[in-house]
Amino acid sequence: MTYEAFAVLYDELMYDQPYDKWLELTVPYLNGKQSILDLACGTGSFTTLLPKRLDRVGVDLSEDMLTVAQTKDPSIQWLVQDMTALELDMTFDVITCFCDSMNYVTTEEDLNKLFSHVYMHLEEDGVFLFDVHSVWKMTNLFDGQTYSDETEHVTYLWQTEPGEEENSVYHDMSFFTLEEDGRYRRFDESHYQRTFPLEFYIELLETNQFTVEKVFADFNTDRPIEEDAERIFYVARKKCKR
Fold first, then answer.
1. What is the pLDDT of residue 47?
2. What DSSP letter does each residue of 38-79 carry, written as one string?
């Protein structure tokens, strides 16, 4: 399956994603701010919810995804870049990376590069917010399970298999799209994700001169990191120069 085809299906398949909850978590950090960068923005469903008073930029690796995003809100600046090699001639008050997009950064080296580039693109005292799959989720919910769902035009099957690296997973998906003649067309897509222990993310953020202000689970800012937490959120602030 090409990314062009996947981009067309993406919004229909992601109908149940809690974009409003990600927005709710982000808004408190936007008071008095002027700019925000959304990394791995996909088709821009979250980015377009951000307040229009801000200078908004969305970055994604897929030009096809951004073509869809452009139709949603052309007032946002949409840029094709690899977030591990981010190079923009601008800085931001806030940078976000949600919807477990960080889990596509699967090596310690690339994760370090990403944090370093985020640091360089933040204003002094700027905030970086992101989420990742928990280790518990990788080992309990992505351990050979099969999931399925359907919409009016698409049916898909999603098989998970543990990867070779620790806390990693292969997502093998088959999509069946309803064509105008009533027949179904099949597409196949494979994704690879990896996560790291909570302590590793914190240590790497601190190595890159961030102060980790808050870590919480499953969209609840007051929830401690319990064993069965599925999604871990990090709020990190760029340290001011002394």
1. 98
2. EET-TTSTTGGGS-TTSEEEEEES-HHHHHHHHHH-TTSEEE
